[in-house]
Structure formats: structure tokens, C-alpha cells
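Reviewer has doubts. Consider these C-alpha cells.
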Amino acid sequence: MKTIYNHSTDPFFNLAWEEYIFKNIFKDEDIFLLWQNDYSIIVGRNQNVFEEVNLDYVVKNHIPVVRRNSGGGTVFHDLGNLNFTFMTHSKGNINNYDLMTKKIRQALEELNIPIELVGKSDLKIENLKVSGNAQYLFKDKLLHHGTLLFDSNLDNLKMALKSKSSEIESIGVKSNRSTVTNLKDYTNMSISDIKSYLLSFMVNSNDVITLSPKDIKKIENLKEEKYLQFQWNYGQSPRSIIKKESENYSVKLTIAYGNIEEALIVHNGSLALNLSSSLVGERYFPTDLSFLKKKAPELYQMLF
């Protein structure tokens, strides 16, 4: 098994890096990657950002939201979290989460950490989640990746992700929220120690691939053209209908490709036609609708 070192903590670059390696560098021999993102929210390929993410919180706290290629639920990343990736051929490995997480579990079990696979794709310790896993295919290749919460800020995690709500209707894949914990509570090792340990457990020190400057340039291009784009991160969310009620307002919005397609706002029992029409065509995003803070502050608070 080979590996490729990555010192970047930029989530936009790192997801482009992972995709580029999977589609262009991985050929025959399996690859294992270990990497970290700074504060970010990573949403599943088929998820609705507007259902999953507290947009007002992430905008105020400058937390990037990035869509990945694999399915599964929304996850919170920070520098207290490790991300691991296995690249292999798909035959016999698709949806085999037991097999694809086996080496990670073995590595942690050797440190006397009582980790186990629970349900389809979660790794838990004493029934508390420390890892979510997901997969996607490209031709005959399989990419399996997962998180390892080591010393993540669990308060930020709770604030950034929404609880289940009946206010939004869509066909987006819903996240299953679980009670989580950190690996640091079960070991005296630091996160850098764990990172070095996992790399040495998975890969021989001489099995390292070095990317060329040309490769890095192509990764940067992929980052710019895909992962930094609103259309990828937000616009890929399934069409949805948002309904909200307050003492003074009743709101129904239809969101398509990240934009408000239809808006029906009733204020104190009367149709607010000018307010409704002012929203149509706008992106459903706090900064794009910031004009409401002065025009209709209560409505802005309702929406976000």
C-alpha cells in the first residue's frame, strides 16, 4: 500500500487533492491517505445544505461548507479531527464497511482502544461515535474515507449542524445525528502521535508517492473550478420547500440550485407582495439576503 503526504489544512484544496489522486494517480496498488482539514463542514453528495447546516452560524464564524463526492451524512472537521482515505478496486469492497474499516480498528485496538463497527458505517467507542464513513465509485475504483474525532471542538460541531426539522421538504439524504466523543479520552497519545502511528501501521516508510508541480497545479485548478464554487457546494442541493411561521410572518420558499425560485410571504395576515418579489432570484444565503436585516429583521432571523 502506498501513501502521499499532505500538509495542507485547506478543505477546498484537500477534497480536490483526494479526488485528483483517486482519478489520476491511483492505478493498481492500493493507496492510504491521512489528512486534516481546518474548521469546515463537509456535506454528502446527495444532501441538502439548507437542511443540514446552520448557515448563519457558519457565515458568522467563517466556517467553509464543502460538498464531497461520496454519500453519507454531514460532518464537522477541525484540526482535532483526522481524515483517512483508502483507494482500492471495487470488486468485493463496495458497501463492505466491515472490511474497509478493519485495519483502522485493528490499529486502534492495539492501543487498547475498544472501537467497534456499529450499524452500517459508524465506528464507536462505548456506543459513542468517533468515526463516520462513506464511499464512492469511479469506473472500477472504490474510494472509502472516514473521520476520526480525536480532539474536536464538540460544541462547535453541535452549533454548526442543524437538528432534524419539519420546516424543510426535500429528497436530500438526511444525516443521522449521533452522540459523539473524542479518541483523546481513551489514550495518552497526542494527535500527531496517532497520525504517525496510523501511517506506520498502514504503510512502509519507503512506499511514498510524491506529486509533481504539474499535479499540484491541476489540483489547484480543480479546487478553483469545482470546490470553491457556490454551485457545487450549495447549488447541488436537491430542490426544496421551506416553510416557517412566527407571530407576524408566514413564509414559503421554493429553493432550486441554491436560488429562491418562488417566495410567498404573509405579514400580519396580508400578502407582502414587494417583500416576496424581492427574494425571487436571490441566492438563499445569509450574505445575499443581508438587505433583510434592515428591511425586515424578524424575517431574516426566521430564515436563518
The chain has two domains: 2-233, 240-303. The chain has a mean pLDDT of 93.
